[in-house]
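> Could you send the Tryptophan synthase alpha chain prediction when you get a chance?

Sure thing. Input:
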Amino acid sequence: MNRIDLKFTELKGKREKALIPFITAGDPDLDTTLEIVLAMEKAGADVIELGIPYSDPLADGVTIQASSNRALKNGVKIFKIMDIVEKIRKKTQVPLVYLVYYSSIFRYGMEKFIKECSRCGIDGLIIPDLPIEERKDIIIIGEKYGVYLIPLVAPTSKDRIEKIVRGGRGFVYCVSVNGVTGARNAINTDIKEYMKVVLSYTDVPKALGFGISSASMVAKFKPYCEGIIIGSALIERIARGKNKEDIIDSVERFIKELKDALK
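Output:
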């Protein structure tokens, strides 16, 4: 079984929901990324998303764009991220997922990229700009190497939700709002109705993300899904950190607060 499946099965048995934090690999640097991952797991993170920095991240708001830019300026490359994931894997078996744009995979070489994901210990891929026409190849190669394609749906997907979730595994990334990523004070989507629609097409666990920024929002939306994704609000804390120790402390406290809200 894939680590993602094992984690959601474990949480279901404990009647808990998954906390899925997102960080950009290499922000502020790759060694700190490793330490942040370990700190997040210690504080209660269940699955961790690592963003591969990209120069034109269309789905991301200013916070994650800035994070990507910082990583790219530091010279972060995909092969270096693979190396740091391999080091992470020597210390933890927490499920790890890449959020990566399709053009990065295409340039790297689709099979080479997925094979290396499997080798270093990545469990799944979220690809925000993946063309429907290319899904089949990603799914087939992913099955060969044990790397899941995690489907991403949005409130605007509507009639396409059934097609998007078909063949997806691990969990469904349910975008909570129309637009790009970014911490928000409120979400106006009818989440209950939206998640009911997604549920009608798949029994794969559903994780809600985009805009969720606080423990109170986590508590509000946890009844409607099996997991909550937090990105921009976490990256803001990393960006404000004065040094590595300050970053780790801030991340641990925030993750613990969010996880407590999921219990």
